[in-house]
Write a structure and sequence with these properties.
The protein is an alpha+beta fold. It contains 13 helices and 17 strands. Strand 8 and strand 9 form a beta hairpin. It binds adenosine-5'-triphosphate (ATP) and magnesium ion (MG). Adenosine-5'-triphosphate (ATP) binds next to helix 12 and helix 13. The site of adenosine-5'-triphosphate has 22 residues, from helix 12 and helix 13.
Length: about 500
């Protein structure tokens, strides 16, 4: 076929005319210089629009260029541009017009003196790519969803590339490690999360087959090093991410064990307390039984010693010996009496009482004793404490024992502070008795509430004071604990439940 430019131009024009795309050529001031007629794109140039009209008006009835116009971009940059144009329903007849079309624009050097054209133009093509944008949007949405998913996971999620650079670091990871997300992404290496050498060991384990399969490490007990140098115990589930056979990243799920460990410790403490309570109760029963058995023979010893002293003419040495026997027997009787008192199962007399008054009364009885002469007594009572249901005699006993112990520990000088207060909403009255004495050695702290536990020299203590206090406070559904203070001396905490008046009758 012979090349004929006229024929070629004819075909080209026909091709442009019949293409199912709108093609518009506009000037730099948005005037339509030429356009094809596209019946499939009615919403575009309507058939009546003419060359010379302003494109945004002819197309969309706008008074100014469209917001996302690619031609404007071409004017600015001189480079081709692809943009999406969204057209409102009321402007166009297309009912489905949320996404109307994509426009592609490119600059065209059109000036030609032969045909008298002086200015260059911009070609605008409608480009049916909304689906491309929709895909893109879907991807962005699903990326955001995944990010959200990872970020809100309860376990720490940390991923790194093969050099150890952190690429994912979720919120739980910030709590486990103490690093912010930004710090982690910008400057942290995965090796810093583990104690020295552990990151390599973990990679080695993942590469072997023995910990859940190749590339996997399952339920591995580990510690994570926090920013402040302390460690967080964790369970680590980790894997290597492969592209084909190539390792490209690793990802770890860090399950924080701190709360579980705290609960474990609490349960252990409760078990010890339970054991302690059981031990105390059986020891108490045993003691009471023994005391009961001893009571009669002791009475006999005292009585017959007295008779011998009265009825026989004895040498003074023999009299002295008998007096010693009598004194020791009396001491034994006193201990037995205390023991029986300790184990007494009599019904408590519960009455609504003001705890500040009970403590004050105990102090009143004690403060004039010589042992308190050089002891400063600080009383700090919360007047807002309501009356609570207690047995006043028993509580006197408790406070008396603790205060006398404190005085013993201070060996005559120091200060004794007694506080009563309410603490938030725990429904308890708190009483603390603290001293500036020698404190309780840590080795005996767990034993001080046991019956007969004493560090006092023979004849000075029976070791029943605190065990009695323990029993009384427990029977009031309260709690008694002791600890040493940082600054020296010890402090006893007694908590008693607040009870409503209408409960009085039930007790
Ligand atoms: N405030 C305190 N400071 C230091 N140690 C104390 C204190 N209170 C109690 N202890 C220690 O606890 C032990 C037990 O006290 P507990 O009151 O049960 O018996 P005790 O005082 O030795 O004898 P008693 O039966 O005469 O009270 C004491 O021997 C002492 O070692
Ligand atoms: Mg005591």
């Amino acid at each position: 076929m012979i090349y004929d430019s006229k024929v070629e131009n004819h075909y080209l024009l026909k091709a442009i005319e019949t293409i199912k795309r709108q093609i518009i050529i506009i000037s730099h001031d948005y005037k339509i210089l030429a356009s094809n007629c596209n019946p499939n794109r009615e919403y575009f140039l309507n058939r009546n629009s003419k060359e010379g009209e302003i494109c945004y008006h002819a197309l969309f009835k706008f008074d100014s260029p469209c917001q996302n116009c690619p031609a404007t971009e071409v004017k600015k940059t001189g480079k081709p541009s692809l943009k999406r144009i969204v057209i409102d329903d009321d402007i166009n007849c297309n009912s489905n017009s949320n996404i109307c079309s994509c426009l592609y624009a490119y600059p065209m050097a059109a000036s030609d003196s032969d045909v008298g054209i002086e200015e260059d133009a911009i070609v605008v093509l409608d480009f049916d790519l909304p689906s491309l944008f929709t895909c893109d949007e879907k991807r962005v949405t699903s990326d955001a969803f995944l990010r959200n998913l990872i970020n809100s996971a309860a376990d720490g999620v940390i991923a790194s590339d093969m050099k150890g650079k952190i690429i994912i670091f979720n919120k739980a990871a910030t709590e486990i490690s103490g690093y912010s997300r930004q710090e982690a992404i910008e400057s942290l290496n995965i090796r810093d999360i583990y104690p020295p050498g552990d990151a390599q060991k973990i990679m080695k384990k993942m590469r072997s087959n023995e910990y859940g399969g190749k590339g996997l490490l399952k339920a591995y007990k580990q510690v994570a090093v926090r920013k402040d140098g302390t460690v967080t115990p964790i369970i680590l589930n980790a894997s290597i991410v492969y592209e084909g056979d190539k390792e490209v990243a690793s990802i770890g799920f860090f399950h924080d064990l701190r709360e579980a460990k705290r609960l474990e410790a609490e349960i252990e403490k409760m078990q010890i307390q339970l054991l302690q309570a059981e031990k105390m109760s059986s020891l108490g029963k045993l003691a009471a039984g023994v005391a009961h058995q001893l009571n009669n023979p002791l009475g006999g010893i005292t009585l017959f010693t007295q008779l011998m002293l009265e009825e026989y003419d004895l040498s003074s040495d023999a009299k002295d010996d008998l007096l010693k026997i009598q004194r020791d027997a009396e001491r034994c009787s006193a201990i037995v009496k205390e023991l029986l008192e300790f184990a007494r199962q009599t019904k408590r007399e519960l009455k609504l009482q003001n705890i500040n008054k009970i403590v004050g009364r105990t102090l009143f009885l004690l403060r004039n004793q010589s042992i308190f002469q050089n002891i400063k007594i600080i009383e700090n009572y919360d007047p807002a404490i309501p009356e609570i249901l207690v047995d006043i005699q028993q509580l006197n006993h408790v406070f008396m024992n603790i205060i006398l112990n404190a005085a013993d520990a201070m060996e005559g000088s120091g200060s004794l502070e007694i506080k009563t207060f309410l603490n938030g909403n725990d429904n308890m009255v708190h009483i603390t008795i603290s001293d500036t004495g020698h404190g309780i050695p840590d080795s005996i702290l767990p034993n001080i509430f046991e019956p007969f536990f004493t560090t006092k020299e023979e004849g000075k203590g029976t070791g029943l004071g605190l065990s009695m206090a323990y029993g009384i406070v427990e029977s009031h559904q309260g709690k008694i604990t002791a600890e040493n203070k940082h600054e020296g001396g010890s402090i006893f905490h007694i908590n008693l439940p607040l009870k409503k008046e209408d409960e009085e009758s039930k007790s």
